[in-house]
Automatic annotation (TrEMBL):
Name of protein: Phosphoglycerate mutase-like protein
Species name: Penicillium angulare
Keyword Hydrolase carried by entry: yes
Gene Ontology biological process: negative regulation of glycolytic process; regulation of pentose-phosphate shunt
Residues in the signal sequence: none
Length: 281
């Protein structure tokens, strides 16, 4: 299996440096990023068997944009549609939802204490809601792997399949850490042709994700792993190996310029003209 871990396109809250589960709209630039990503996969003959996406709009719209560039049916409709999962949604920031990241004690990409909590709200009339703990995020990652990824590996270990997961920066880091825990560290490697370089063990890589950047993994079963099944999904993948092919790959964004005049960072309106049409009259 080739597994692609993809971050969604740029959203309003990315521009404003805010984070959380608030369903922030994509920007015009974010939509161009998605279009470029879909074209990249198509032009490189990367065709997906399944695409999973967070239930937040910025993620499932990104996934739908990828699907739109995949092979279509005879009537021109996408054959592939995103599979939406609440397990993949962003970290909840509780009472700090909508606040600037610079003004919070916890940033989504940092290595927080497993029981990290948000600071109390200054407004005593507003009930305090804690930041979602890393433990809770990890449980979501485990549930998703056990229900959707590991059964596929065990049922069709030799399948030459491409699976994409479109999610959010904070969750993808936790998800990656859980994937690493499934393997013997000595069976995790970095593709020598990768554009990512690390001077330490591959299992210790701490990846980050740009908007529409993706991590590509190749997971294969060795002879020792034969016979393992979904009845024991929470154990080490004995005999399996994982190769890191790409970390935050964003070749599709080369040459992509943000439209000036504030248009690029503005909220995308699905009913508006394509951005380049603003300048054709």
């Amino acid at each position: 299996m080739r597994l692609f871990l993809i971050r969604h396109g740029e959203s309003e809250h990315n521009v404003a440096q805010k984070a959380g589960i608030t369903d922030s709209a994509l920007t015009n630039h974010g939509m161009l990023q998605i279009e470029s990503l879909g074209e990249y996969f198509s032009s490189n003959a990367i065709y997906f068997d399944r695409i999973f996406a967070s239930d937040l709009s910025r993620a499932h719209i990104t996934a739908a944009g990828i699907c739109n560039q995949q092979p279509k049916s005879e009537n021109g409709e996408p054959i592939l549609t995103p599979i939406i999962s609440g397990y993949l949604r962003e970290r909840s920031f509780g009472s700090l939802e909508g606040k600037l990241l610079a003004n919070t004690s916890t940033k989504p990409e940092s290595k927080e204490n497993d029981n990290a909590q948000s600071a109390p709200s200054n407004d005593s009339s507003t009930p305090h809601v804690e930041i979602e703990s890393v433990v809770a995020m990890r449980q979501r990652a485990i549930s998703f792997l056990n229900e959707h990824i590991l059964p596929s590996l065990f049922e069709c270990p030799d399948a030459d399949s491409n699976v994409a997961i479109v999610s959010h920066g904070a969750f993808l880091r936790v998800f990656w850490n859980r994937i690493v825990e499934l393997f013997d560290p000595t069976n995790i490697s970095v593709d020598p042709n990768s554009d990512y370089w690390s001077d330490g063990p591959a299992a210790f890589i701490l990846p980050s994700w740009s908007n529409t950047g993706f991590m590509q993994l190749s997971i294969q079963q060795g002879k020792e792993g034969a016979g393992q099944n979904a009845a024991d999904p929470d154990v080490l993948l004995k005999g399996w190996s994982m190769k890191i092919v790409a970390v935050d790959r964003k070749a599709h964004l080369e040459g992509l310029q943000r439209t000036r005049g504030g248009i690029g960072s503005a909220t995308h309106d699905p009913g508006q003209k394509k951005i380049d049409q603003f300048f054709k009259n």
